[in-house]
Request: fold
Amino acid sequence: MNWVNGRHAWMQTLVSYCSVPLFVLAVLLSLGFSSLVLASDEAAQCSTQMAKTMADPILKSRIFGSLVQQNLAIIYQDNPDYQADAKGPKNMLADGRIGRITEKWLGYFCQEFNQAASVENENDFVSQLLTALVTVAELTQNYPNWRQSLVSEEFKSWLAVLTTKGQYSEPSCEAMPYCYGTPTQLHGLFDEFYLNPRAEHYTKEYPEANPGASSNVRSNGPDYYQPVVRPQPQVLSYYQFNDIDMGKLTLWSENTTKFNKLVGKKFSSDIEIGTALTPIVVALIGTDDSETVSKRLAALITVTPAEYQLLSPKPSEPSPEEPKPDEQSPEAKAASQTSPKASTSDNGDANSTETSGAAAAAVITPAPATTTQVLSQPQTYEVSRETADNFLRSLSLLALSEAQLAKLSSLTGSVFLDDYLLSIAIKELALELDESQAQALNTLAHKTGKQGQAAGKPLVWQPTPGCGCTQNSIIEDGNERPYYGFYPYWQQETGTSIDYSHLTRMGYFSAVIQGPQLLLPNNWRAEKAYSQFAINAHNHRVKVDLVFSSRGEEVASPSRGWPYNQNMVEQIIAAVKTPITGNMINRIKPVISLGTSPSRTLGDGVTLNLDLKEINSQEKVDEFIDFIKKLKRGLSSKASSGASSNTSLDRVSSLSGVNSSASDEAKPTDEYYLNLMVPAYELEAETPEFYTVDNLAKIEPYINIFIVNFSPLSSAAPTPANNSVSSLKAFRTLLGDAAYSDSAGRVFAKVIPFIGVNDADINALEAVVNYTQWSYLGAAFWTMPLSAQAATLIEKSYFPVKPLMFPSLQPVVELADKVCNQVCPLRWPLRLVFLLLVLIVVIYAIASWWIFSLRQLFSRWYFLVFLLLASLFIMLVFGCDPYWQQQQQLFLFIFILGIFGYNFFRQLAQKRRGSLP
Reply:
């Protein structure tokens, strides 16, 4: 078949093959190029060169063979032909040898990148081939879709622009890797293509890639050689309140409080108000630039001009020596009336009369009136409420109270994988904020990039003082009453403790499913410091489930893709079955238990907390049900725990089937559980989504526990129903409907209600607990650790103390309980001591058959003391170890048989010895 634009025909290929020596034809036949022939010239050259170098001792080396096979596995990981050969018997593509299968793909690689034609010295062919393998493997790891891009119209148009500009020489051919240069040159070309942004003229001039197949590509070639649109890189993000964020919130809150105290306060001068406002404004805007601060102050300060009042003066008062007109004497009045006549009749006295009249007028007439301007209100400076609100709104500041900051400070440093987990963590705080404030808090916490793995702190799950093993483990007498506790991974308070005796399983909340990607909390690790939480839980016989959450928009997003597929199954299983490291007891458990108890993994099950509102077609429903079946089958598989999904192709194949056998169905004794959180508020809404009674009945055989939640965990979601007795009754009524009588009973048998114990009012919580203890098989508690009131109520309701038949034995029973509460969590170290003790006794007894001096120990008094103490130790272990309790009759029989056997052989030895010393 021809991949190079009609360069060669079958006749030319046949002629070329006929010109090759017979031994080269033999090699060609062994390579099996029925579906791998690229071009006849390249095939012939590679076959010839490889035939000459097959005797090279380097090619026979295991080190070289392993290196070649590792790189081939990377380069052709998506090639169906390669995968078919890898799944063949004995996996010859991973045995470290250059056999015929490896030669076949090495020859194919040589042809695809035209290695034989570019070699200058035959002695350098092997080293050149190895260098090319490493380079192309790196290229494939960096850009897995480079082959699709190679034959896409987008790549061709982009390369044409570079060629036109003279930045790249025109390719010698099309659609084949060797057309564009050596592997190193090809790697550099794709670095440029993927990493450098497109020029503006290119975007306008050239359209997006054509999804149709190129005419230069063989029609029946590998699927990865079909052109597709180059995917856009996904922007990684997470949410975190770091020290800088908390510093900002503290600064904003303190200065906003100071700022609000100045609003409406009047200042007498601009200097006074400037002195008070400037440091607050600088702290809020985050800069001390004088021009910026001045503009902000000018927009903030409102100046009220001074006000003046105009005052008119009062009329002038007469002189106190001069009588008022009304008070003049009759003689004066008469004189004033006769004075004009006197002035006309007597000219000689006229001047004197006028002078006296003018003087009188000067004394009696007031001065002209003048207006006085008096300051009634001085000029003031203030910040109005309107300008203050505009200023704060322009900065988008978030001001919290001291109590709110204290609530948020406990989350400092915790990494939230998405906004859903963040909304759950700040739910209590978000209820006190309005929508804009909650959005501002979300924006502040949002970070771009990859979360720092070193940011996680190990969880500390300490048992309460005197806490023993769980009292309601499923292993005990087939008891199927699960009590489930949820623990968010960001809760890292010190000094908290958990009463394991009242739990069956713990849910580690939560990993996140984002499209095809699985994000794990950065403190979900197998190292000793991080895995201690699981070890503490296992010591008290409590299992640990990893919770997986997703949002509905993740399913609906075309850029994300459908997440519930085989790849997600493998990722979930690999995360849960991560082996615990750094714990000696866990490593030697198979030895101590004689193979009956394997080493524990970090997780013991899966709990799915999925928003499936976007699954609105029967096709998607069927795909999700198939996902549940595959996941349960993978959890039940005995494949190596913690193995990567890419390390075992057979394992992938075994999980790919849909039909399930009876062994895949959920049972109380399953080593790994599969649980599902069911939103009752969606189930009752009767919407065409996944959560319906019929769909739950279809997956019921594969689910161990249904955890029914009656209100969303997130504060961002609506809350149509509270976790109350009425909600619990409504759910029972729904499942008791006659329409579901055949299937609802099986579902309800696995249902436990989700109870928000620490968020609820104690009276409402008591009503819920009293109802559930009689109507449901168990309960799930959000969140652990429980408050003191909630713990007391749950212990009294679910775990009442049974009265003794003989009350006088109460002190003895309490003492026995205290002893067993100390012994049970230490059962594995004690089992190790018991095993070593038995081995020592057995080895000593066997050795005494040949060494007579060793037999003297059996007749010594301290050997009897040893037997007595050993018997007490064994009885203590048997009485407090749950496993030995189940087998106590068998082991008691063996113990008694051992004592009789010892006594029998001792008497036989004494009889044989007779009177001998």
Observations:
- Residues 100 and 230 are 36 Å apart (CA to CA).
- The two ends are 97 Å apart (CA to CA).
